[in-house]
Amino acid sequence: MLRRIASRCARGLGAGGGARPAVGLCHPGRSSSSRSSDARRNQPPSSEFVARPVGVCSMMRLPVQASPEGLDAAFVGVPLDIGTSNRPGARFGPRRIREESVMLRTANPSTGALPFQSLMVADLGDVNVNLYNLLDSCRLIREAYQKIVAAGCIPLTLGGDHTITYPILQALAKKHGPVGLLHVDAHMDTADKALGEKLYHGTPFRRCVDEGLLDCKRVVQIGIRGSAMTLDPYRYSRSQGFRVVPAEDCWMKSLVPLMGEVRQQMGGRPIYISFDIDGLDPAYAPGTGTPETAGLTPSQALEIIRGCQGLNVVGCDLVEVSPPYDPFGNTALLAANLLFEMLCALPKVMVV
């Protein structure tokens, strides 16, 4: 029953109605010590006052809102996995990430970020994709994100397979022009086609280049690894001007110096963060469709995202979480934490 209620309350864009609280009927509200400035913004409920299992299953138990109007940033689910080439299940990623996000709190002591004192944030539910037609799903995603971007809201996306980044970037580029890209992944996702099809989760950035959606001199791909069909798998990316950082170049070291270089490369123009959970080693994130051994660590993932603080981030996604391959939920818990870190890195977030 609770799962059915949660799915009804988080159906997604265009469902009608305004924001709905994600906590139970007996929610006692914010404590009297909350500052009046905070009271004007949505706040995830504290477990001191509302038990973690209580409420609708939204991201961080934030209010579920049908419209992006009035929001500075929003979590959006895209439960699509018909673009996968190996193990499916990423359609269940948004739901499981939301479930695990109950452990998240409002402040980031490590970075000093206070996102909920700075931004109006809500959960916009899920885009209503077409699980029988990948091209139509991309159209639905693009149209949904055009509405989000037009409202001045920064989307933080819960995937879904990596195909979804293509229509999202179509929507963002329509507003911002070609954007920079910080892409964390085991794979470059720049293939031209597979089985005769030019659209699947291995081709999104090739399609983005074809359509001029990326500022190719400001594209960085981190964590690339694994066997390949040639001895020069980076050729296409580097020929376009991308910087490719193989996983081997990240082993046993902090990525803080790398991110200093990335910040200089990105400058003050708009950038998008696309984080495939398989960029991490499967020892930490087994719940994904195309795992590759010897990947990044969670601490390196934090260094990458925290290294984006101060950049002009116009959107983010966390993709390829496939819950059936991690029944304990650790992959989704890690994904939820990385999405929170992305929220903390957005422009206008107060840092103390």
From TrEMBL:
<feature type="binding site">
    <location>
        <position position="189"/>
    </location>
    <ligand>
        <name>Mn(2+)</name>
    </ligand>
</feature>
<protein>
    <recommendedName>
        <fullName>Guanidino acid hydrolase, mitochondrial</fullName>
        <ecNumber>3.5.3.1</ecNumber>
        <ecNumber>3.5.3.17</ecNumber>
        <ecNumber>3.5.3.7</ecNumber>
    </recommendedName>
</protein>
<dbReference type="Pfam" id="PF00491">
    <property type="entry name" value="Arginase"/>
</dbReference>
<comment type="function">
    <text>Hydrolyzes linear guanidino acids to form urea and the corresponding amines. Displays specificity for substrates having a negatively charged head group and short chains including taurocyamine, guanidino propanoic and butanoic acids. May protect cells by detoxifying potentially harmful amounts of guanidino acids. Metabolizes L-arginine with low efficiency.</text>
</comment>
<keyword id="KW-0479">Metal-binding</keyword>
<dbReference type="GO" id="GO:0008783">
    <property type="term" value="F:agmatinase activity"/>
</dbReference>
<keyword id="KW-0464">Manganese</keyword>
<dbReference type="GO" id="GO:0046872">
    <property type="term" value="F:metal ion binding"/>
</dbReference>
<feature type="region of interest" description="Disordered">
    <location>
        <begin position="13"/>
        <end position="48"/>
    </location>
</feature>
<dbReference type="InterPro" id="IPR006035">
    <property type="entry name" value="Ureohydrolase"/>
</dbReference>
<feature type="binding site">
    <location>
        <position position="162"/>
    </location>
    <ligand>
        <name>Mn(2+)</name>
    </ligand>
</feature>
<feature type="binding site">
    <location>
        <position position="187"/>
    </location>
    <ligand>
        <name>Mn(2+)</name>
    </ligand>
</feature>
<comment type="similarity">
    <text>Belongs to the arginase family. Agmatinase subfamily.</text>
</comment>
<dbReference type="GO" id="GO:0047972">
    <property type="term" value="F:guanidinopropionase activity"/>
</dbReference>
<feature type="binding site">
    <location>
        <position position="185"/>
    </location>
    <ligand>
        <name>Mn(2+)</name>
    </ligand>
</feature>
<feature type="binding site">
    <location>
        <position position="276"/>
    </location>
    <ligand>
        <name>Mn(2+)</name>
    </ligand>
</feature>
<dbReference type="GO" id="GO:0047971">
    <property type="term" value="F:guanidinobutyrase activity"/>
</dbReference>
<comment type="pathway">
    <text>Nitrogen metabolism; urea cycle; L-ornithine and urea from L-arginine: step 1/1.</text>
</comment>
<dbReference type="InterPro" id="IPR020855">
    <property type="entry name" value="Ureohydrolase_Mn_BS"/>
</dbReference>
<dbReference type="InterPro" id="IPR023696">
    <property type="entry name" value="Ureohydrolase_dom_sf"/>
</dbReference>
<keyword id="KW-0378">Hydrolase</keyword>
<dbReference type="InterPro" id="IPR005925">
    <property type="entry name" value="Agmatinase-rel"/>
</dbReference>
<keyword id="KW-0056">Arginine metabolism</keyword>
<dbReference type="GO" id="GO:0033389">
    <property type="term" value="P:putrescine biosynthetic process from arginine, via agmatine"/>
</dbReference>
<dbReference type="GO" id="GO:0004053">
    <property type="term" value="F:arginase activity"/>
</dbReference>
<feature type="binding site">
    <location>
        <position position="278"/>
    </location>
    <ligand>
        <name>Mn(2+)</name>
    </ligand>
</feature>
<feature type="compositionally biased region" description="Low complexity">
    <location>
        <begin position="20"/>
        <end position="36"/>
    </location>
</feature>
